[in-house]
Design a protein that fits this description.
mainly alpha, 11 helices
Length: 265
């Protein structure tokens, strides 16, 4: 009996991974190109990283994106967790189907439709487009993803732990804060990271809901790429890849430490 993947599967996986990661590798390599031409290698240099930090437009867009991501991910985590608790712990209440559909609608709604509808809403409410509107839009988009992640953890959570805490004198609220919340915290943190990444990556909805002074980094990169790829764009993309890679590595190390600590407790 053959063990391991077949040659066909190995070739297919190699081609697939090369198609996915080779462009990213090339982008990182060309970010250290001394030449201004992105197709001509002029030697190794880090000057474009220095030029990046002197580019006020890119740095301002990066700062806006970072603030929008942090605030919208936090709001989406709070709302998504509350929605997941309501759907998991409160059974079949009146309006549950409608509430569930509205909570998960952003998962299947095309982003262009969602962005246009939010734009019409802000115009109807006479809210000027800017930092507030793009933050609210990203919160609306990402809270559904947080709700899915947290709800999947709550569905497998042993409620006997809560019941034991209440038998020992805890109120339902205190049992939730001291028993349930610590156990589902990894899922909440994973939902926050997912929401932050989605906000960082969004271009379509931000294009509809942002205004003057609230241009996000994907919008700025897209507007500059239309005129040609510059080495500074490669540098900022490489930094983003590095930040995400560091986050994933830290998360993996933390998960391993947690897994090793669980048997001891």
């Amino acid at each position: 009996m053959r063990r391991g993947p077949s040659p066909f599967n190995l070739v297919s996986l190699t081609v697939g991974f090369a198609f996915l990661y080779l462009p990213i590798l090339l982008l990182v390599v060309w970010s250290f190109n001394a030449s201004k031409l992105v197709t001509v290698w002029g030697g190794f240099s880090t000057k474009w990283y220095g030029a990046l930090f002197q580019n006020e437009q890119l740095m301002a867009a990066a700062w806006v994106t970072l603030r929008v991501g942090l605030i919208s991910a936090t709001l989406a985590t709070i709302l998504g967790t509350l929605a997941a608790v309501a759907l998991t712990r409160h059974g079949r209440f009146r309006g549950r189907t409608l509430f569930s559909g509205m909570s998960y609608a952003p998962l299947v709604m095309p982003e262009v439709i969602m962005g246009l509808s939010l734009l019409l809403l802000f115009v109807a409410l006479k809210i000027d487009r800017g930092f507030l509107t793009v933050t609210l839009a990203h919160t609306t988009l990402t809270m559904a993803y947080v709700a899915v992640v947290v709800q999947s953890r709550l569905a497998t959570f042993d409620t006997a732990l809560e019941e034991a805490a209440q038998d020992l004198g805890c109120t339902p609220t205190r049992a939730f804060w001291q028993v349930t919340l610590p156990n589902i915290f990894p899922a909440i943190l994973a939902g926050w990271m997912l929401a932050f990444t989605l906000s960082l990556d969004d271009l379509v909805i931000a294009s509809f809901t942002s205004g003057p002074g609230a241009t996000t980094l994907p919008m700025r990169i897209y507007s500059q790429v239309r005129l040609g790829v510059s080495p500074e764009i490669n540098a900022v993309c490489t930094l983003l890849i590095g930040i995400v890679a560091v986050g994933v590595i830290c998360w993996s190390i933390g998960s391993k430490w947690r897994a090793r600590a669980l048997p001891a407790t």
